[in-house]
Amino acid sequence: MPNILICDDDADIVSALKIYLTQPDCNILTACNGKEALEILDREEVHLILLDIMMPVMDGLMVCREVRKTSNVPIIMLTAKGDEFDKLLGLEMGADDYITKPFSPREVLARVKAVLRRMHEMGTEDKSAHLVVGNLDIDMNAFMVKLDGQPIQCTPKETEILWTLASNPGMVFSREHLLQSIWGYDFLGDTRAVDSHIKRIRAKLCNDRNNWDIKTVWGIGYRFEVEDDKRV
Hints:
This protein is α/β, with parallel strands linked by helices. It has helices at residues 11-21, 34-43, 60-67, 84-92, 105-124, 156-166, 175-183, 192-205; strands at 3-7, 27-31, 48-52, 75-80, 97-101, 130-133, 136-139, 144-147, 150-152, 172-174, 212-217, 221-226. A hairpin with a 2-residue loop joins strand 8 (144-147) and strand 9. Helix 1 crosses helix 5 (105-124), helix 2 (34-43) runs parallel beside helix 3 and helix 6 crosses helix 8 (192-205).
């Protein structure tokens, strides 16, 4: 039974989301500020977080940053309309998705179901083989990424994007294709989520010692390139 944590200081929003998200096979946890959310995460196993940005005590961006130090749990940020900077900052801090307020609880339910379904699919797919490209090792069975033999903390979305690109060297993937195949639903045409995740992947993994790189194909998307196309 997955635990879903709703963290928002607006009691009406929390109440509405609880009504729509309460399912026979789901358990709902709630917090009214970031500090309370982190306390819940310390004592409960949480499978998905709905996280408001503007909250007292500790805001959602700080919570996201703290969570990503130790956990890959999916995070959907709840952002105010027009706060483009906060949306992008949330994605760059490791959020998987965002929904703009005011939103329809049905939309949130659809997003939550999609994320949980994707996580279930990842747990049941046969990905026992490792993919090794030079100093890069991706184990989709354990959802672990290593560089030069050292584990690198990557979120599930980052790992999936890296796997998709690295397992198809030389192939150009559009942002729209990555959204559909990895997020698993219509992302309302906003491809910045892909760009933000690629930026994080590059910051964690790309360096001059690698014999591979993630190239931007301007106006289209991204391509994984291997030097001399030699895969170890």
